[in-house]
């Protein structure tokens, strides 16, 4: 349902963390030119023939070549050029004598070691030959990928862009943090949490907005931002009660683009899915734990897939439960958990806090979600279960 956006060409900095939408063919060789691998002296190897500490060879130093010197030099037989690491090797030189094997002279140099042809010269193209495909479509843009692109002179890369997500919280009881609470009000926590989860999944947040339980107000938020988004996520207003603004806005029988369903999971049973003017919308339940677990189960993998990112699913680890638990019949239960991989060998897991969908504190300090299959009602200590690694 969530589709990849067309590829875009962006600056290297913007490309970080995305995946390449094209192969990259080197237009340049690396190294670009033959250059010195050492600080030392460029020589003709045969001019150092027989040099030893007891019988050194002395050569006049005709040039000084720091890195970045751009004029083209030629080494005359029987002379040396002082040269620094990364500087171009002059025509006619066949080896570099490291400064450590010399007296470091400036006018003339005393060389105490014989040097083989080719020593300490980094050859043009030995890393990358121009015309080689060095990076592949689908490859994640990591720091070394950016380094290679820059070394090849590229200022931009073509990537699959980030998904743009609109996050809307609903509820007339909600107050933005930082403002005083009146009786019956609570602080709004889903939009900041879901927006952070979107960014953590690699997406960008077009806007976060809060609407009261009022269809017109909710509709106004959609009208204002929906066109900029590739995905709309709402929280709240999809349960079985009255004043369910999201259900009311789209109609409860699925005839206005959004279908409301009950999913056999806990937390996160009431869900909705559909489109608003062509843009996918997923309507999550309002309880904060339900909202975040639903995001983990349904949206994080889908967003990452649409961006072509690696590891769309959280890593699943098999771990031994160190307590006995019960789980509701017919529902796949995700319990906040502490996964312990420190013991070496077998990972263990213990649930963390009650399964209730409003206990946010435990989720904040859990490092895993314990995945209890829907046909399981009792799990005894020592059972192996799957844990989603959130760390
Ligand atoms: P709802 O799904 O709208 O019936 O909300 C279920 C529960 O989650 C209620 O206790 C709401 O107050 C709470 N809730 C809904 N949205 C939010 C939110 N954005 N931040 C914090 N709590 C919320
Ligand atoms: Mg509500």
TrEMBL record:
| UniProt-listed Enzyme Commission number(s) | 2.10.1.1
Short name of one Pfam family:
MoeA_C
Q: Which cofactor does it need?
A: Mg(2+)
Establish whether keyword Zinc is in the entry.
no
- Tell me the keywords, alphabetical order: Magnesium, Metal-binding, Molybdenum, Molybdenum cofactor biosynthesis, Transferase
Q: What is its EC class?
A: transferase
Q: Name one GO biological process term.
A: Mo-molybdopterin cofactor biosynthetic process
| Any one GO cellular component localisation term in the record | cytosol
Record's catalysed reaction(s): adenylyl-molybdopterin + molybdate = Mo-molybdopterin + AMP + H(+)
- Recall the GO molecular function terms of this protein's record: metal ion binding; molybdopterin molybdotransferase activity
Q: Where is the MoaB/Mog domain?
A: 166-305
Pathway annotation from the record: Cofactor biosynthesis; molybdopterin biosynthesis
Q: Which InterPro entries match?
A: MoaB/Mog-like_dom_sf, MoaB/Mog_dom, MoeA-like, MoeA_C_domain_IV, MoeA_C_domain_IV_sf, MoeA_linker/N, MoeA_linker/N_sf
Role, per record: Catalyzes the insertion of molybdate into adenylated molybdopterin with the concomitant release of AMP.
Protein family: Belongs to the MoeA family.
**UniProt-listed PANTHER family:** GEPHYRIN, MOLYBDOPTERIN BIOSYNTHESIS PROTEIN
Q: What is this protein called?
A: Molybdopterin molybdenumtransferase
